[in-house]
Amino acid sequence: VSTQSTGSSGINAEYGHSHLDALVSRHPGKAETFSLGQTYQGRDMKAIRISNNVASSGSKPIIWVDGGIHAREWVSSATVMYIVNSLLGEVEPSLQSKFQGLMNKYQFVILPMSNPDGYEFSRTGNRFWRKTRRPSGCKYGYETSDGRCIYGKCYGVDPNRNWDIDFGRQGVSKNPCSDVYPGKSAFTEKNTQAMSSWLAKHASQIDLYLSFHSYSQLFLKPVGYDRNPPVDAAMHNAAGSAVVNAIYGTHGKVYKNIRSVELYPTSGSSQDWMYSKGVKNAYTIELRDTGRHGFQLPASQIIPTGEENVRGFLALLETL
If 0-12 CB within 10 Å is exposed, 13-18 middle and 19+ buried, where does residue 188 land? Predict the structure, then answer.
């Protein structure tokens, strides 16, 4: 099963889904797929659940991992897929003894592509597209009395500003054409509705929420909207130190361990919403690189990014 998940034009969302199905057919006792729901354009939000004796693992604590909430951040979905492949022994044979113990203890629920509409548009329309694809309003807010846009339509909402936590206050724009337009209200987008519905239902079972983004090489801790450290700051600091040290020990890449608000203040992120729901370990990792290639990370860096982050992921699990 291929581990290389993007190139100059990326893979399509359906291929990513079929890869998950292929893994289930190869590991029927350890994996199953399910859909969280459909996007605005009708694409499945396909997740994979991985555990030893997966059919009877429903009561185990949950480790949640997602990628691709921002469409142009292709390496985030590829890295999440690398973690899936690692858990199931398709890659990383030296880590299997550690993973086997963790799969006895936890169920891993993994959503590699949480914004497939935006991702497909980043492949076929605009490589640097970030948001969803639902029509979101008129450019500059100008429209005629009968609702037609004077200067053109805007599309999409930033799905990582669309969560119901400190909504619409910081790191956002009221211009619906902006990359950081949060929507008219929280959870206007079908993908954030589907994710939040599942996560809220299972919040008491979730031991870790981890969201992969790119780029900047950062381990981001709660919260993004308040400069005052949260009550769990010491635990967050220890978790971040373990992750960035494990990453550095793989290929020598330096990831910084900082709070989200230290990068820039943001409202409405998935990480902070999960933290507000009582999931104390809720983090975001910004992957390679630090700006030379940015969102257009060369394909030759996909596997090394996966290798260092699966080791960071293991180190994080050991802090729980």
Answer: middle
